Every structure is written in C-alpha cells, then in structure tokens.
C-alpha cells in the first residue's frame, strides 16, 4: 500500500475527531439564552393583531414606542411561561414597567384569557398571535422570549428563556433602565 494512502487513512479519522470535538466544546460553552437576533437595532416589524380580550379591536406597531417597554412572548401550553409569570406580576407590582404581552399560538383565546384571570395579568396590552405571524417576524423559536424595545420602537435586546429575578437584575433590567437615559 502506498505510504501517502496509509497516512491519509490514519489522519482522516483523527481530523474528524478533532473537528467533532471542537463542535462539542463550542456547544458546551455557549449560552442558549443568547441567540443572535437580526432584529436587534431594528424597528419592531409591522403587524396588525387582535387584542386578546377584545377580538374586535386590533393593534398595530403604533402601540410600540413612545417609551421603553418589554414585549414578552408567552403561551398557556408553555411550562416555563408559567414559572416566569409570577415574576412578571411581582416586577409590575414593584417597578414601573411597561409590558406588552404577545400570546403565542394558543389554540383558544378563552384559555389564554382564563390563564391571565387566574394567574394575574402583568401586561398593559395583550396581543393574540394565534397563527404566529408576528412571532415569526421576530424570529421567535419558542416561548418565553422577551424583547427590550426603546422609545423609538427599536429592539435593543432579546432574551430567550424565562425572565426571572437574576436575569432581570443582571441583564434585562439594566438594559431597560438605560433606555430612559437616552
């Protein structure tokens, strides 16, 4: 057998092992809550969605802006949203936070309304996105996700996963409050 061929047969599995090991190490040290978003630094996409409580009333992107706010993507079928919800209620009670709720792909408007009536409603406006149109435009992978939006309607930060006390104090809260200084 040719010595070059033997060398290639020996080095090919070794090279494959090194490449796969590199991907594994990269995955182990990546933060799954930090997904890059092409929309950070850009306006909230145009939309027209019905109000969760009043299906005859619709909202457009004109509700976004004027002051810093959060857009929180949630669903009744999402167990992490259930965990997050008590913190959002606590946050609203303790701090002057403006939050738009974006209900994501719930089959039943009534179930979503009932969920908020039972658990409390931390949202100033609730959008019903049953087909996932706005969430698709926002690049949402699942619920919960939270977007920090400035007074001009520009997305400044995207958080994937539940918004909890640690995340609020370490990341999202400082970004949110810094928008009032601009």
TrEMBL record:
Residue span, Thioredoxin domain: 38-177
GO terms classed as biological process: cytochrome complex assembly
A Pfam match: Redoxin
Top-level lineage group: Bacteria
The keyword Disulfide bond belongs to this UniProt entry's keyword annotation: yes
GO cellular component: outer membrane-bounded periplasmic space; plasma membrane
InterPro entries named among the record's database cross-references: Periplasmic_diS_OxRdtase_DsbE, Redoxin, Thioredoxin-like_sf, Thioredoxin_CS, Thioredoxin_domain, Thioredoxin_ResA/DsbE_sf
UniProt-listed PROSITE patterns: THIOREDOXIN_1, THIOREDOXIN_2
Gene3D superfamilies: Glutaredoxin
Membrane-protein topology: Single-pass membrane protein
Localization in the cell: Cell inner membrane
GO molecular function, one term: disulfide oxidoreductase activity
Broad class of the protein's primary localization: membrane
Keywords: Cytochrome c-type biogenesis, Disulfide bond, Redox-active center
Family designation: Belongs to the thioredoxin family. DsbE subfamily.
Name of the protein described by the UniProt record: DsbE family thiol:disulfide interchange protein
Organism: Aliidiomarina taiwanensis
């Amino acid at each position: 057998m040719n010595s070059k061929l033997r060398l290639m047969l020996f080095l090919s599995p070794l090279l494959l092992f090194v490449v796969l090991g590199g991907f594994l190490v990269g995955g182990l040290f990546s933060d799954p809550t930090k997904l890059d978003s092409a929309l950070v630094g850009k306006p909230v996409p145009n939309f027209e969605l019905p109000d969760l409580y009043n299906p005859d009333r619709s909202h457009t992107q004109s509700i976004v802006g004027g002051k810093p706010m959060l857009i929180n993507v949630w669903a009744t079928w999402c167990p992490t949203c259930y965990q997050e919800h008590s913190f959002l209620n606590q946050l609203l009670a303790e701090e002057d936070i403006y939050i738009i709720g974006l209900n994501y792909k719930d089959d039943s408007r009534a179930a979503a309304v009932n969920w908020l009536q039972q658990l409390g409603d931390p949202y100033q406006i609730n959008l019903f996105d049953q087909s996932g149109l706005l969430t698709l435009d926002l690049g949402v992978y699942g619920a919960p996700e939270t977007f920090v939006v400035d007074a001009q309607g520009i997305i400044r930060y995207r958080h994937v996963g539940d918004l909890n006390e640690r995340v609020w104090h370490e990341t999202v809260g400082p970004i949110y409050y810094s928008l009032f200084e601009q």
